[in-house]
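Troubleshooting entry. The earlier prediction with S-adenosylmethionine gave an output that would not parse, so I re-checked the input for stray whitespace and re-submitted. Clean input:
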Amino acid sequence: MQNTELLTPVIPLIQKIFDKNGPDADDYSQILELVDQIPTEEIEDFREAVSPILNPNTIIGFSYTKPFGYNGDFFIIEKIYQQYVNPAEKYKKWDTFFHTLPAAIAVVNRKKLAVEILTKLNETANPLEKQVMILGSGPVNEVNEFLNNHPASALKFDLLDMDKRAIAYAKNKNKNYLGSMNFFNQNVIRFQPDKPYDLIWSAGLFDYFKDKHFVYLLKKYYAFVKEGGEMIIGNFNVENPSRKIMEVLGDWFLFHRSKEELVKFALQAGIDKNKIDVITEPLGINLFLVVRK
Ligand SMILES: C[S@@+](CC[C@H](N)C(=O)[O-])C[C@H]1O[C@@H](n2cnc3c(N)ncnc32)[C@H](O)[C@@H]1O
């Protein structure tokens, strides 16, 4: 490790935190401040200093090492939803800290929002079936929670994910509800729907796409929204207080976007101005572009 000007005073603090097996609540703000100040050229040195936790035993280290080969896989998202804390002494405080990050709370909030939206759609469903498509469906946690509460629902789900491990996990998790679910192990870019949907939902996917792909996919899937239906796309807000720690410790990079950018994309996709809205989860960190038809 280099003794750079910034890192020199930081090392004793990191050592002190490792000596007590991770941060306590009164260390959190100091760590966040520290990470926010790290210049790009010192990120690697900082990562080296915290290397004992940058492995799949911690949530942040799971993100950093990417055991599934990419950021934001179904397994890490599920750990966030379940507020998983590794019980091992040297990791548990770090996982506890992770779950206090506003971005982690926003991810849990977005799942709650999805359940609310499904619940509302369900009120208009029975006895008619309503068709729902989820793009980048991951662990299918929101549908699971919804169906736990509404096992006789007339909502039918098409679930699309390019990772076959995500599909296998989600099928197992939802084994009681497979009669209401069709899984598609495909890439959203290539998938061709063969029916229209009342709701197309996607969270945790479009913020990995460049602008031109965002607009392309929005246009492509909007064509499969029924009259009276809607498509809702989540994207992290440019105002994300956890952005730097996600990037520095988690090596987790996203295309953060503003409300205005999301509206601009919808207009570029040819969607009428009065059919466009942007909503948020309670922290305002996950934005949702809503386009109605
Ligand atoms: C961050 S997770 C979000 C999961 C879920 N939507 C949620 O909010 O809980 C993103 C998921 O999208 C999938 N994915 C990423 N790129 C994809 C693509 N091009 N086509 C289909 N699925 C994709 C990943 O495999 C992963 O399961």
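This one parsed fine. The first strand starts at residue 130 and ends at 135.
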